[in-house]
Specification:
By secondary structure, the protein is mostly helical. Helix content is 82%, strand content 0%.
Length: 139
C-alpha cells in the first residue's frame, strides 16, 4: 500500500509539473499575442483616418477602444449607490451592539463614502474639462 501511494504521489508531481510548464508556455504565448494584437488594433483600426469610417457596432467599438466616451462616471455612480446602501443596511446590525456605533456608522460611513466618490468624480470632471478645452483651442 505504501508503494502505490508513493507511485501516485510521484505521478501527481509529474502531472503537476507538466501542467505548470504548459501554463508557463501559454502565458508567454498570451503575452506575445497580446502585444502583436494590441499593436495591430492600435495602428490599423484606431487610426485617426478611420474615425468616421465605421458605423454600428464597429463605430461603437472604435469609440470605446479610443476612449472617446468615459464609462468610469457611470461605474462610479453605480458603485457609490451599492456601497451607500450596504453601509446603511449593515449599520442596522450594530443597533443591538452599541447605538452610538450604529449612528456613527450610518452617518459618518455615508459621509466619508460620499466625500471619497466626490473626489473621484472631481478628478474625472477635471480630465473631461481639460480635454474639452484642449479640443476647443485646437479649432
Amino acid at each position: 500500500m505504501g508503494v502505490n501511494s508513493f507511485a501516485r504521489s510521484t505521478n501527481y508531481g509529474t502531472h503537476s509539473a507538466s501542467l505548470s510548464s504548459t501554463s508557463a508556455v501559454w502565458m508567454i504565448t498570451s503575452i506575445i499575442l497580446a502585444i502583436v494584437g494590441g499593436l495591430l488594433i492600435y495602428f490599423l483600426f484606431l487610426n485617426k483616418k478611420n474615425e468616421s469610417k465605421f458605423n454600428g457596432f464597429l463605430g461603437w467599438l472604435y469609440h470605446f477602444l479610443s476612449f472617446d466616451k468615459m464609462f468610469l462616471e457611470i461605474l462610479l455612480k453605480v458603485t457609490y449607490l451599492i456601497f451607500a446602501l450596504y453601509i446603511t443596511l449593515s449599520s442596522f446590525s450594530l443597533i443591538g451592539v452599541n447605538f452610538l456605533l450604529f449612528l456613527s456608522t450610518l452617518v459618518l460611513g455615508n459621509i466619508l463614502l460620499r466625500v471619497f466618490y466626490e473626489f473621484s468624480l472631481i478628478k474625472l470632471l477635471i480630465c473631461r474639462n481639460t480635454t474639452e478645452i484642449s479640443k476647443n483651442t485646437k479649432k
